[in-house]
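Q: Structure tokens for this one, please.
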Amino acid sequence: MSQLPNTRPELLAGVDVGGTKIAVLVVDGQGQVCGHTSTPTPLNSPESTLDGIVTAIRRGLVAAHASLSDLGAVGVGIPGRVDTQTGVVRLAVNLRWQEMPAGAQLGAALGVPCFLENDVRLGALGLQRHPDYAHIQDLAYISIGTGIAAGLILNGRLYRGAHGMAGEVGHMIIDPAGPRCACGLHGCLEALTAGPAIARLGQQAITAGADTQLRHYQPVTAAAVYQAARAGDAVAQAIATQTGRYLAYALQQLVMAYDMERVVVGGGVARAGDPFLQPILEELARLRQDSALARELLPAEKFHLLPPDFDAGTWGAVALASQGLRRTSHAIGVI
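A: Here is the predicted structure, written as tokens:
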């Protein structure tokens, strides 16, 4: 008796690799979720991190009641500079990767095509899978965490720029008299408003003798600053206000440069919610008061926090896997 063909839709895996965890989402050919998992990121060596990604994907398939033979392609988001054509990660500081041929090595380990992209750009791509943003043709996703970067969707397509560096808004200069940034310049957005910058401001206030609840937090983190701000701490609220003002300027520049229809803000710092978002909205409101152009292009409804229950990174990685598989299939004449 002949064996019936496998009618199960070919599965896609989307992987979001962070400095602390690896998240995996497995979906079928119709985009239905089959399984997901999250595991700590092993950082003992570049090789151990790569092995950890493979293990996480295998666990995601187990959660989907599937195996490698069901897998069609994998998309992977990496926090760093990625050559999307070769799958080589040029630099990923948190993973201690430099010139790592991760795409080829993952493909060899899994036996399926693996496509890599910067994680924040995949966050923007993933938002196209969310019902609130699927119809948006010009969309920016900006991630505020240990670093700051944006992913841009222009005319419905992910925009990478001439050198694959589009969206490096963390290195826009906001205050030339500001602190020195890791890139070497002074007053970059990242040096003023990323998580370490917010924590530094909190610690400086304590060192200066300010009367603040932040003294009870060790170490002082960005999350602690926003927690204290929510509780009414004046010092923490002043830091949140200053941070919000700088971020509002950056969002204004982003919209003026690209005429975005929607801007979604996510990342670890943004998880603070209202204490993080409200100062940004207040500064944007002030800009609208002073400018007819700002009133037209910067309405409050244009700016959203990333929905807390939506993993834009893994959905973007799934979209990358789907696009890559289609390109590969066309290239060999399958479709």
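A few notes: Residues 1-8, 330-335 have pLDDT under 50 and may be disordered. The CA atoms of residues 68 and 125 lie 25 Å apart.
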